[in-house]
Amino acid sequence: MTKSLRESQIKEKMDRYPKVVLRVQFPDRYVLQGFFRPLETVDALRHFVRSHLEDPQLSFYLFITPPKTILDDPSATLFQADLFPGALVYFGSDVKTDFYMKRELLESPVSAVQANESIASCMLQSSAPSSSSGGFREPLPPPEPTVEASGSTQNEEDPLTQTQAAKPARSDPGKVPKWLKLPGKK
Asked: What are 145's strand-pairing partners?
């Protein structure tokens, strides 16, 4: 594959996915979810996680699996760190505590379904053509997350857009493929 072809494919992916959805899973099974731009750095992700910790001075590391790869290059973009268009990042720390995230986040849980609907509505909005045609976009402001009842957190979006999640199309239940042989039918 030529260099120009690779670059055009990368540009096409960046245009198709202007937002990166990252979920950070903590050892206590809570998940912090945030939306980022592909050209933001791993350092921006670390800053986002640190801003939602109960103890901001806590030393921690972020990693992805498999294989376990610690995200230790703060200048790497999310695209370069293979966190594009979405990823599950794990939180690790040598210090063990009962909870890592702020208590107020843990007191306002959001279900996993609502978090997935938020992602779907975000991706639907980002696929709409934008009015600006600038090449570089400013980083997203730090979002305000909430914690899911199943242990996840997500960013609060407009409540009306959360209900606009993509629904799978259903075909006619009376139609079955020719190759399907059901018992009792001739």
From this structure: 155
Q: Which domains does the chain have, with CATH numbers?
A: 18-125 (3.10.20.90)
Rounded distance, CA 111 to CA 113, Å?
A: 5
Q: How far is CA 126 from CA 10, 35, 42, 134, in A?
A: 17, 12, 22, 15
Closest CA to 27 of 57, 1, 53: 53
Structure tokens at 118: 């938020």
Instruction: Identify each DSSP E strand in 73-172 by its residue range.
Output: 86-92, 145-147, 153-155
Chain-wide mean pLDDT for the chain? 77
Give the pair of three-digit tokens for residue 151. 């242990």
Give the confidence band of 142 by pLDDT, cuts at 50, 70, 90.
very low
